[in-house]
Amino acid sequence: MATAITATLRAGLPDRCLTPEDIAALFSVPLETVYAWRKKRTGPPGFRIGKHLRYDPGAVRAWADSLIETDAA
Predict the structure, then answer these.
(1) For residue 55, what are the domain limits?
(2) Nearest partner of 56 among 8, 14, 24, judged by Cα
(3) Which CATH number do you get for residue 62?
(4) What global pTM score does this model have?
């Protein structure tokens, strides 16, 4: 999946919905952390397509930017 992550169009993010595995690779965290973020509602907002969890690249970017702003304050 790392190859898919590097082929990007939107500010360093793929121009497609991201999977939990993509999120884990992007932030260099274990997949379990991504699911824990979702359970605690502290991670990027995700949505379901049937039984599959997906993330909008723009929402992931906004979430990461908000963390950077909060940390800088």
Answers:
(1) 2-72
(2) 14
(3) 1.10.10
(4) 0.77
Tokens 């990027």 sit on residue:
44
Spell out the per-residue pLDDT of the chain, length 73, in tens: 444 444 444 566 667 899 999 999 999 999 999 999 999 999 999 999 999 999 999 999 999 999 998 888 7
For residue 52, the tally of other CB atoms under 10 A from its CB is 10
- Dihedral, CA of residue 35, residue 36, residue 41 and residue 43, to nearest 10: -70
**Residues for the chain: how many in total?**
73
Q: How far from the centroid of its chain's Cα atoms is residue 41's Cα?
A: 13
Report the domain count for the chain: 1
